[in-house]
Amino acid sequence: MRARIEDVAAAAGVSMKTVSRVFNREPNVREETRLRVEEAARQLRYRPNSSARSLAGRRSYLISLLYDNPSSNYIMEIIEGVLAACEQAHYGLTLRPVDFGRRGHVESVEGLVNQYRPDGLVLTPPLTDDLPLLRRLRELDVRYAGISAKRNNARIGATLDERAAVADMMAHVVALGHRRIAHITGHRSHGARAWRLAGYLDGLNQAGIEPDPALVIEGEFSFESGIAGARRLLDLDDPPTAIFGANDDTACGVIYEAAARGLAVPDQLSVFGFDDTPMSRQVWPSLSTIRQPSRDMGRIAARQLLDEISGHGAGGIVRLPYQLQIRHSTGPVPQRR
Amino acid sequence: MRARIEDVAAAAGVSMKTVSRVFNREPNVREETRLRVEEAARQLRYRPNSSARSLAGRRSYLISLLYDNPSSNYIMEIIEGVLAACEQAHYGLTLRPVDFGRRGHVESVEGLVNQYRPDGLVLTPPLTDDLPLLRRLRELDVRYAGISAKRNNARIGATLDERAAVADMMAHVVALGHRRIAHITGHRSHGARAWRLAGYLDGLNQAGIEPDPALVIEGEFSFESGIAGARRLLDLDDPPTAIFGANDDTACGVIYEAAARGLAVPDQLSVFGFDDTPMSRQVWPSLSTIRQPSRDMGRIAARQLLDEISGHGAGGIVRLPYQLQIRHSTGPVPQRR
DNA sequence: CTGTTAGCGCCTTCAA
DNA sequence: TTGAAGGCGCTAACAG
Question: Which domain of life is it from (chains A, B) (predicted)?
Fold first, then answer.
């Protein structure tokens, strides 16, 4: 049978409470006593029972990751990072896919909170900016860290300066001679849509290029919206020479449509995206894009959360560095004939 | 405050135990009583506290998914399925990335088992066929369900007839006139490698084509091994007219290399893969491949496991149907000149 | 078919 | 610095 705290206490000749103090790193234990308890625990191979701990201590030693699966890769990287942080803190992780935009999604999260009582949540986009959800979490007094949250939607978490990243990439494309640069936007419910659009406009502005509304097409962060957007853009009388897809899926849709039309990328059309998904390396031509350190963002957001839970936290939003990945889908602007 | 089982019992005018029966799907509850309890629970937004449940029930109400992340998409689909099954059974899920092949990975799983005491494990390839791991799990008396396990490596779980699937796809390609069909294999540690290779050989055999050893290249289920394999194959004096990549990543590597050489797919070379990842739809030309119902496999494997845990289980390995996805990367064999 | 009683193993509170 | 008693919310075992 497994040893219980009682057994350890008996073996060490102290009370249960003293063993509990040792295991929870509470003060007020004499060094000598501590050592005796630790030795007894080792001998008995004692492991605290986490259910009992949670039940009595009103903490679950569990955090939950909420996501709306925009992209498997992204989520898996976030998960990896969050797991790494959890491991260090001896915390467990539960997952909660949330169908953002479906009626009752807030209640679904409430169910999770009621059942597992996670000590905190990590929110990924677009849930980070889901106002009804955030309001309810505050009412329920559930703390959370946000990944890529808009201003004021999270007190702690991790983010990236997407706007500056896009502006940087725009400068690269402008340097290649492009002036008619189009953008297929992200979905309206995502905070990233606004940042990336703003970066696009910043880039034009810095290059002294007048924005052309015909070159901004509504998209939704999907491959299909990339195809549809590319069709409209390439059918224009004066089509763009470069297209910025709001994420890699969108950009791949553009490449697909270009290939379908026999348009050579990058010789006749430059394309770039955002996210640096594995696919961006595996399409032909490989995609120029912006690398987002998702794994680190997950790890840091989780750490901020765990620190706050344990009271160690200075808190705050940590801004991580991005990185341009210039590959083969961007090239010099084609010569006019 | 949150409702407890006591509150629900009071509201429904029954005892705590009856509420417990309803929530645990135990028999011996009159239908009318069950409905009354369910209604009361809904009104009070009652959710059983999982810590208390585990403590009293001497079960963790938790299963763990072990994976070695061959592909994010695959794992995320499996996770979705497993979560769906868990939800129904009011079970929680913990994840465990395992670095298969790294020393100490078995101990890492033991750590998981000791700490969380999951009531069972779901194993994904290649861990399903990791003999040292399986042996240890049996020693520890931890039950598990396997996904795509080789014969005898799991008693319960879900699988797919990969061999027949590949043979089917081969028949499709043969019908297009191809006779020099190459295969870039999967990694040796994966059971899928053998099945897919066998299906390839079956396909040749059924078409009366003598296998050519030069047309079978060692790969490892990666994009890079697809590129490397394609290079060797396309440099042959008598190159193949069709290449089967052991998975979609490999096949995409082949397409990439073909594009880099200016070889038109499918006009000059046909390519097909296995898995039906999202990428297979998003490359140009879109990839002919075999669809694997990963989500269902996760759901069913988890359900088999949960049934066994609760004693409801007839058990066994459920074989799921595959589906050919013929897209644009396979076409008639090029005319000889 | 339904209810009662006694813990599950730990932490909290309060006393020493 | 240490300990004793009570209870966290639920289920098992047994009783009706």
Answer: Bacteria
CA angle A43, A45, A46 (to 5 degrees): 115
Q: Which nucleotide is nearest to A57 (CA to C1')?
A: C11
Question: What does the CA dihedral B218, B221, B226, B232 come to, rounded to 10 degrees?
Answer: 0
Residue A58: per-residue pLDDT:
85
Tell me whether residues B284 and A281 touch, CB distance under 8 A. Answer: no
- Numbers of helices and strands, H then E, in chain A: 13, 12
Contacts of A259 in chain B (CB under 8 A): 284-285
Q: How many Å apart are B305 CA and D11 C1'? A: 22
Residue with the larger pLDDT of the pair B229 and A55:
B229
What pLDDT was estimated at residue B141? 87
Residue whose pair of structure tokens reads 């029954």 in the numeric block:
B14
Please list the residues that pair with A120 across neighbouring strands.
A63
Q: Find the residue in B nearest to A51 (Cα).
A: B51
Instruction: Please tell me which of the candidates A72, A110, A253 has its beta carbon nearest to residue B73.
Output: A72
**DSSP annotation of A328:** S
Mean per-residue pLDDT pooled into runs of 10, chain A (337 residues) = 84 89 84 89 85 87 91 94 89 90 88 87 95 93 94 94 98 98 96 96 98 97 97 98 97 96 96 96 95 97 91 85 98 82
Residues of chain B positioned with their CB less than 8 A from the CB of A73: 72-73
Q: Which residue has the higher pLDDT, B333 or A50?
A: B333
The whole-number Å distance from A51's CA to D2's C1' is 26
| pLDDT per position as a tens digit, B286-322 | 999 999 999 999 999 999 999 888 877 678 999 999 9
> Under an 8 Å CB criterion, which residues of A touch B?
47, 49-52, 54-55, 60, 69, 72-73, 75-77, 79-80, 83, 92-95, 97, 110-111, 114-117, 223, 249, 252-253, 255-256, 259-260, 278-279, 281-285
pLDDT digits (tens, 9 = 90+) for A39-51: 988 888 888 888 8
Residues in chain B: 337
Chain C positions within 7 A of any protein Cβ atom are 1-5, 7-13
What does the alpha-carbon distance between residue A277 and residue A281 come to, in Å, rounded to a whole number? 8
pLDDT in tens, B250-294: 999 999 999 999 999 999 999 999 999 999 999 999 999 999 999
Contacts of B100 (CB under 8 A, 6+ apart): B68, B126, B127, B130, B189
